[in-house]
Amino acid sequence: MPDHASVGWIDIVVILAYLSITAYLGWLGYRGTRSAADFLVGGRSAHPVIMAVSYGATFISTAAIVGFGGVAGLFGMSLLWLTFLNIGVGILIAFIVLGEPTRRLGHHLGAHTFPELLGQRYQSRGIQIFAGVLIFLFMPLYAAAVMTGGSVFAATQFGIDFEVALLIFALITAAYVIPGGIKAVMYTDTFQGFVMVLAMIFLLVFTYSSLGGVTEAHQYLTDMEAMVPAPLAQIGHQGWTEMPAFGWGAPTYDLWWIVVTAIILGVGIGVLAQPQLAVRFMTVRSRRELDRAVPIGAIFIMLMTGTPFLVGSLSNAWFAQNGPILNGKVVQELDAEKNQALVELMQQTDSGAWTAIINPKTQAPATAALIVSERQEAEEAGGARFELVGGRSSVVTYVKGDADTIIPTFISTALPHWFGAIFFLALLAAAMSTMSSQFHTIGTAAGRDLYERIGTKGQPREPSLLVMRLAIVVGLLIAVTISYTVRQEYIVARFTAIFFGLCAAAFLPAYIGGLFSRRVTKAGALASMTVGLVVSLFWLLLVKAKEASAIGLVQLVTGGKTSLLADYPNWPSVDPIVVALPAALLTLILVSAFTRPPAAEHLDRCFPETR
Amino acid sequence: MLGLDDPFVLTAYLGIIALAVLSILYGLIRRNAARDEVTDEDRQWALEEKKVDDEF
């Protein structure tokens, strides 16, 4: 959509300056202290700002900013509940409740990966292998989300094809993660984190000020409720500053179940069981360091997720005030007082007459809700006279409903081009810090948790660097293939939500039980992980309509339906986590209750403080 | 209030700010409350982690 997408000399200067500083900091880091483990080996304390920002940079990526920001543009400010959970659960509960026990348990048992932590806690090679396989198979899905988000932004900002942007993104990622960039160089992470913070503050201030202030911006968006596109209104969208309609048993409640269960709960809770985040706690020096990191972590996450969710929603108001003028014929007055009308969109032919624009999906004339600002007499192609109206619409109209392009389109249209370059670098940094830990986790899952543990005749093998590198290359290829082939509605957010939900259902009960309970057994943990995974996959393959119909198995089983529960409204919109997590938790409790608890000596080793 | 008519969205908006303030207060109050010591076990763990990282 933007007509000024190109690379100018200012962009090149900005990009070179940024890369030079990153390279300099990276070089400084490599000369001395560079990773969290280095700080700990040296017995020194990482500054809380460094600790919090580097944790946040691992958590936040293009998936959150482009993917979920775009979903907010589509569904509205109900997404702010995700930011609420990101701070309340992802920072407060994670740092205060889980951080120290994870650090202690990891150190007592000498565990260095998440599967190893679970495996050692439950004295089970099977659990370690199970977790390793799950991570190796599904982490590429999350990496694909990050990659797609970055590529969509680059394609929009620099006016290149998505496929070209993806290829460049994949090459940069490969250059970063394969030769050794996977080490968490905390100084560069922190610098990149600061760039992200500044970019977000600028973006938020710019958006609010260009809409006349905080209250004015919100009020304008609230007043646009009648302009919600019909397909969204039919599933319960009530406006961009309102929660979707809540209820059960009718398709008009579908959106509430999508937003609350998949987007908010799936990601908001799933963060607790993210392998690459849990292991970060082990590299922390002490509880004091965790306590001190809480405020910075909270502010960082507030800016990194709250800003894109607000800006994504408010971009609807910005386009309604400043977007390109669209023309057409009024089909229905929506709100005469506010000049809002449903308009059949038209374009002018070479002869000067007006013809309807045809929606390629429906093959019917395209319609959109406009804030009408001009009216004039005009002539249709058939010669009939009619009143031609002109006006602006929400961002959803301009991006043709493609949520993943909302944030990139807003930035490349509304903001100065130099900011687009900085924002792109901030996104690139966010993507790289997240992907480096994703691929590091894939590599260690394959090398340490699978290859070493699946030794010959039950004996562990020697560590293999080659296996780790190969796993990273394979993971990268899978992620690129997924990004290249799957381009659907808000796919970035959906991939992320699927991975977070899977981790929550499969790992969370066993992880938390392992940290806090002496009574949870190996059988209980393994059964819980199995039930969590199986129920999640069953739900994704056969019940959750969007995912199931895209995979295609459900159509074969049901003879063409998109869900096993297609005849029961709302069930096909419910996320697996709502069913799988309680099932996994119940399994953990029940199986543990009926199986023999771990040996006292092992528990003393796990929890020497409470011996 | 703030142009947000839906109380649930307004609660989320203000709740985010409240949680951020709570986090700042927590950090200030607990700044030196917890013990800060690095045990031999911690150091041993970090050495192993560094070895794996360096090999990688």
Protein architecture, described:
The complex is a heterodimer of chains A (611) and B (56). Chain A has 611 residues and is α+β, with helices and mostly antiparallel strands. Chain A has two domains: 9-320 and 403-610, Sodium/glucose cotransporter (Up-down Bundle), CATH 1.20.1730; 324-392, no CATH class. Helices cover 65% and strands 7% of the residues of chain A. Chain A is built from 24 helices and five strands. Chain A has helices at 9-31, 36-41, 48-59, 62-75, 80-109, 114-121, 125-158, 162-177, 186-210, 214-222, 230-233, 254-270, 275-282, 287-322, 395-398, 406-414, 417-451, 465-485, 491-516, 522-543, 545-551, 553-558, 576-593, 600-606, and strands at residues 326-335, 340-348, 354-356, 367-379, 385-392. In chain A, strands 1, 2, 3, 4 and 5 form a five-stranded antiparallel β-sheet that branches. The longest helix of chain A has 36 residues, at 287-322. The radius of gyration of chain A is 25 Å and the shape is globular. The model of chain A has no long low-confidence stretch (mean pLDDT 88). Chain B has helices at 7-29, 40-55. Chain B has one domain. The termini of chain B are far apart. The model of chain B has no long low-confidence stretch (mean pLDDT 89). Chain B is an all-alpha fold. The interface between A and B is large, with 68 and 43 residues.
